[in-house]
Amino acid sequence: MKFFIDTANIEQIQEVNDLGLLDGVTTNPSLIAKEKKGFRELIEEICGIVDGPVSAEVIAQDCDGMLKEARHVAGWADNIVIKIPMCPEGMKAVKTLTAEGIRTNVTLIFSLPQALIACKAGASFISPFIGRIDDIGYDGMELVGDCVDMINEFCFDSEVISASVRHVQHVVQAIQLGSHIATVPYAPLLKLFKHPLTDIGNSNFLKDWENAGLGDIL
Question: Which residue in 130, 124, 125 sits closest to 162, CA to CA?
Fold first, then answer.
């Protein structure tokens, strides 16, 4: 499974990329707004750090507007993926962009029919929002599993991005369900490294080394 980071913060992206963990980045208008930089400046800076896909979202709500924005933004870097919201106008835009060779990520997916529509439109990626589904009392990971099964059953080319990830267990379940990608915010992404038994084991190893009087390795 690939890891994307769900942020537009340059320091966070650089840190996770330096760990060798980063396969891509997802942004959205809210994340961009937090950084107090120009949209193009920020996206181009991110694309210069990351080799993998970088999702940049359009804000137009009609197909013609989405296409105009998408074509413009896609020209900023080779690894840009255009993020399009799930809606009829958006799916018209996805179909056209796919035919033009521009990759898309359909966002705000909350049901299996929406996922099917996005795949049929030719989306490169589909993003079920698992945390927000959990928030209203349903099981977001069930949708991820259904999306993976649907893609495998009908041989779509789309990849599932488990999005709106809130905690480590979401990532564990995404792995178990065969999600192609999980896009994870900075804090829970770093928590993936942690386990109490790892900390205890490392501490015990160091204590045993010191007690044996072995000194420095170098």
Answer: 130
- At residue 58, the 3 state secondary structure works out as coil
Quickly count: other Cβ atoms within 10 Å of residue 44's Cβ.
15
Read off φ and ψ for residue 20, nearest 5 degrees: 80, 15
pLDDT per position as a tens digit, 112-141 = 999 999 999 999 999 999 999 999 999 999
What are the distances in angstroms from CA 59 to CA 42, 90, 104?
16, 11, 14
Q: At what angle do helices 88-99 and 112-121 cross, to 10 degrees?
A: 30
Alpha carbons 136 and 158: distance in angstroms, whole number: 27
pTM value > 0.90: yes
Looking at 2, 83, 120, 194, which residue is catalytic?
83
Contact between 5 and 189 (Cβ < 8 Å): yes
Instruction: Round the CA-based radius of gyration of the chain to a whole number and report it.
Output: 20
SS3 (DSSP) at 127: strand
All structural domains of the chain, each given as residue ranges with its CATH number in brackets, are 2-193 (3.20.20.70)
Q: Which of 92, 142, 153 is nearest to 121 (CA)?
A: 92
Annotation says 83 is catalytic: yes
